[in-house]
Each structure stands twice: as structure tokens, then as C-alpha cells.
Amino acid sequence: MKKIVLSLVVAVAVSIAALAGPSPAQTAQPPAGASQQAGAPAQPAAGASQQPGAPAQPGAQPSGTAAGAQAAAPQQKKEIKDPAEYNAYVSAVQQSDPNAKISGLEAFLQQYPNSVMKVDALELLMATYQQANNPTKMIDAATRVLQADPNNLRALALLTYTYRAQAEQGNKDAAPQAAKYGQQGLDALQRATKPDGMNDADFEKLKTQTAVIFNGAVGFGALQAKDYKSAQQHLQSAVTADPNNLRDVYPLAVSYLEDTPPNPLGLWYVARAVNLSNNNADVVKYGHYRYVKYHGNEQGWTELLSAAKASPTPPANFTVAPAPTPADQAKALAASKDPKQMSFDEWQLILTEGDPATGDQVWNQIKGTVVPFAAKVIDATKTTLTLAATADDIQNNKPDVTVTMAAPMTAALMPKPGADIQVQATLDSYTRTPFMINMNDGKLIVKAAPKSTRPTRRRRPAARQ
């Protein structure tokens, strides 16, 4: 894949707390009938109103919630049977300072390793490590979540996102890790069950958000491995769900354009990426290059940028006309220009890329013509010159013309390999593969030496006797 993909790093903040789920503090139910422990928040009596300024209690329903609504969307809660365990958990999760919360949660998990709230506590712990900007501990906490719950979507999403971000910043070992956790996440989505305390709408939101992360990372990993078809499949799923996410839109464009043959859908998405990136120079350069290469010129590029800015998705049956094939170009050239006025480059295009009928038509018109031309010497003998006359072959030091001289050249006139010369010869025959034009009756065109402009010295007059 092109290095340009790695050079475009898009900063996107992901918060595990924002992944559609209730706070762990709201899913813990105190022991039924247990007396309140010293220092623990008091539970309001059934039906009692919350006192002004008092903190919301774990498990408490917001005031004013209709009984019918509660019945329609019940919030199942986990019950901690040990009052001391309950108090330790609530004390930890209610800390406002991230470091204090981390200490409380770590202590709770160490003291109650088999708690019913273990996964909830670990989820909150990894989110708090993220908040505290401690990526090493965050990854460790996410790994501990997966040890307790291998299909945990939040932990899988965090690990997937983190490793992909590292890959985008140049860590070559991170892309496979991101793809691994992304695939594990996609598999987990197939068997995911709604967590305790989460309603249906939040669960669907969680699955949608994490699916974007998982598909994006798997597609990005496939793109790194040049598996363009897999990259297209997963990145397209991610972009369909979130069409304004540059992190997936641009790699999707690359996956289409680097494939063989390139898919013009990539031109839409690269134009979309230009807009989403605020005309990032690398994205603009890559998109323009790919458009011109596919279309043959830049006509329509500005219009495509405008259309992609106005709509996140391409119109039905979107396409871009491809550039004419070499055979089409050869046929059009033969029909538009007198063969005797063509250059060696144009003859080469028609005689090598054109269909046989077009090639014969042009050759029959130029055969026997005396042509003066400039060329680079590849090799030379007294009777033969091997030359490069087309621009590409001159650059590559590759012969494309053989000239048989009308008369042997003297040693003084014989050009050396690498020299640029002017020659005149008659077109005689050609071979298509490898391409070679054979000419005879060759003559070097030697420019006359310029006349000297130095003044002639005047003779002194003879001395008188």
C-alpha cells in the first residue's frame, strides 16, 4: 500500500464511557434487607422523594418515571449480597478523581475477585485509565476484562481502536493486533447478549458503534496486507455506517484504487476524503493523480469534488469514464493525422498498440519515405547505425531504429555510442515485437562549420629601397 495512507493520521477520541451503556454504579443493587453500613450512601424509602442536593442512589429510578414505562423497559440489576462488598464498590465508583477511582477499583477487585460486579468494575477501570492517559494500564485492564468476559464489546473496541491508532502512527506491529481484535469483535457481535441493566436502544447503539470500529480495523489491516477485496468489504461496511469518518473513508478509497483493475468508486471516496480532510495536501495529490491516471486527464475532477462534498454516498451506478486504451488512442491518431507528418513516437504507438489493419494502413503510407530525424546512438559500425529515436527509448537507452548506410563511414565520421546525431534515411520495414524500424540509404546530416569571424591580418607594406 502507498505510504501516503500511513502519513495521514487522524486524531479521533474514543471514550468507552460513551459506548452506549449505563454507569456501573447504576447496575449494582444493595443487599436486600441489609442494614446500611456506616459511610455508605443512604437508600431512600420506597416512594420517598429524593432530597434536594442529595446524590442519586445506586439502583434508584429517576423521579417522575411512569410505572408503565418501567414495566415496558425493566432495568435488571446485579445484587451484591455482602454489605461490605457493596460499600467498597460504591465508594470506588463514586470517586470523582480518576486516581482515587483507580485505587478504589483495584482494591475492590483484589479484595473481591469473584464479585458479581467484577466485569463492570474492570470496564470502569479501563475507562478510567484512559481518562488518566495511562495507555499501558488501560490495555492491561481491557485484557483483564476479556479474561473474565471474552466477548466483551467495550474491551474489544478499546483494544481494536488503540492498536489501530498506533498502526496509523507508524507502528508496523500494531496493524495485525488491531485486525485480530477487530475480527474477534465482529465474531463477538454475532453472539452478543444484552448486558444487565442496558435497554434495547442502548444495546443496538453499542453494537452499531463497535461494529464501525471493528470493521474499520479489519479493513485497515487487510489494506496493509494488500488484500484489497477484504479491505473493501470491511471498510465499506464501516463507511456505510459512518460516512463522515475520514479514518475509514480514505483507506476505502485507496483499497478501490490500488486494486487491479482499479474500481472508479475509489475516485468518489477519495474526493470525499479530500473534503473531509479539509484539502489535506497528501490526499489532494493522491486523489488528483489517481483521477488523471484513470480518466486520462483532469476534466471533471473539480465537479467530482463538489459532488462528493454535497453527498456522503455516491449516486446509483456512479462511474468515471476510463482513459482510452492504447489501441483506441492508436486508432484515433491514425484517423486524425497524416502519417507522413507523425513523429517516431506516434508511429511506434500505432505500429505496436494499434490493430493490424490500422498498422498496415499507416505503414503503407509511409514506406519508402525519406525521413530526416534526430536520434541517440546505441551502437555504430561503418555500415550500420543502431539508434533510439522515440522519447521513451532514448531515456531507456533502448534501440528502436536500425539504419543501413548508403556508403561506409570513415572513422572520423563514425559517431560514438551515446552521441546525439542527425540522420536521413528511407523507411523500409518494421517488426512489431520487439519494435524496430529498419531504414536504408542512410546519410549523416553534418552541419557545416561556422565561418570564422576573426579579422584577417593585414600584410605590412614592403620597405622601400
Task: State the helix count.
Answer: 18
What is the residue-averaged pLDDT?
85
Amino-to-carboxy terminus distance: 97 Å
Might you state the CATH topology name of the domain at 4-27 and 77-260? Serine Threonine Protein Phosphatase 5, Tetratricopeptide repeat
Q: Please identify the structural class as seen in this structure.
A: alpha/beta
Largest sheet, spatial ordering of strands = 3-4-5-7-6
Looking at the overall shape, the CATH architecture of the domain at 4-27 and 77-260 is Alpha Horseshoe
Give a count of the beta strands, DSSP E runs of length 2 or more.
7
| CATH superfamily membership of the domain at 4-27 and 77-260 | Tetratricopeptide repeat domain
The helix/strand series, from N terminus to C terminus, equals: HEHEHHHHHHHHHHHHHHHEEHEEE
Strand content: 5-15%
The poorly predicted ranges are 1-13, 35-75
Helix content: 40-55%
